[in-house]
Please model this.
Amino acid sequence: MQDVQSSQLKETQSAADMMSQQPGAEVKPAATMRHDWSSDEARALYEASFNDLLFEAHSIHRTNFDPNKVQKSRILSIKTGGCPEDCGYCSQSAHHKTGLKASRLMQVERVLDEARAAKAGGATRYCMGAAWRAPKGRDMAAVCAMVEGVKALGLETCMTLGMLSDEDVSRLKHAGLDYYNHNIDTSERYYDKVVTTRTFADRLQTLARVRESGIKVCSGGIVGMGEGPGDRVDMLVSLANLPEHPESVPINMLIPIADTPLGAAPRLDPIEFVRCIALARILMPRSYVRLSAGRSDMSDEMQALCFFAGANSVFIGDTLLTAGNPEIDADAALFAKLGIEDLALGDL
Ligand code: SAM
Ligand code: SF4
Model:
């Protein structure tokens, strides 16, 4: 383990001064918003003594957010399975024989019924995901109607539909889409070990189009896919060095799916996962860092450490597209134990 570099420690000191603030006190801007991180600098933070890393991450978190509030999103698969991409982790790829039944794009009214239930369950953002490489022109009218309908319910909207053309982006923007999710998944170096049907550069191109349009960006990745620590660090550096930080950064722990190429990947050490959350918080001080896939297999203690390290968003509801997620009651009990409250839409 290396010591935190002296310049980074200086930042820790100033952040630590703010530790005297009461929880929930006025949110102050981060000392620095950088877009020029080097891999080595970020790696030194990632490999610092765990207590130093956590202290720095939590200090930055507390400087920018109420540390006792977590934003809740809910996600629905609006078009499941049969995807032409070959993502090695995914149950929905047509390249893997996972036994998942493919379905067509859902009817708009059914999506709106689900969104109403999500709102009643405490969600403030409704995410809709489709197993596409890219949407087809003929699907865009229905997708835009979903955005308009969900927004009219008073929820924030997020879509994840694969790669977008300029025209797709402008139609989604016109429909009022708040966020677009497009994960970079891993480091550029490790990318082709995970997906071969598109490139890391393709991912960045869609992200640039979305950013340009004014739709907010949700982008993160998956850890525990057999990558090395340098890949985890570089994935976060790539996100932090975008011209603007994604507003939302989901960090997924791989859910191993039988009969996919990554179905037998060894489980990542939970401490390594917490390090990823902490590094995301330090590199992107004002982004919502979402503790995403894999929470069902995380202990309460591990999740508590993640919230301390800077995670401040989760998916609620017992399904995550096609995978499991903690039951609403289990989450309510966990948040009550930790004294964590919902972040209301007005707080965002
Ligand atoms: N097809 C779209 C795309 O890939 O951009 C959207 C749907 S995709 C299922 C949404 C995200 O879920 C992926 O980018 C990936 O990060 C995450 N994901 C999918 N399968 C996963 C798994 N088995 N474990 C953890 N995360 C997973
Ligand atoms: Fe398709 Fe998305 Fe799954 Fe990749 S992650 S196979 S693009 S649904």
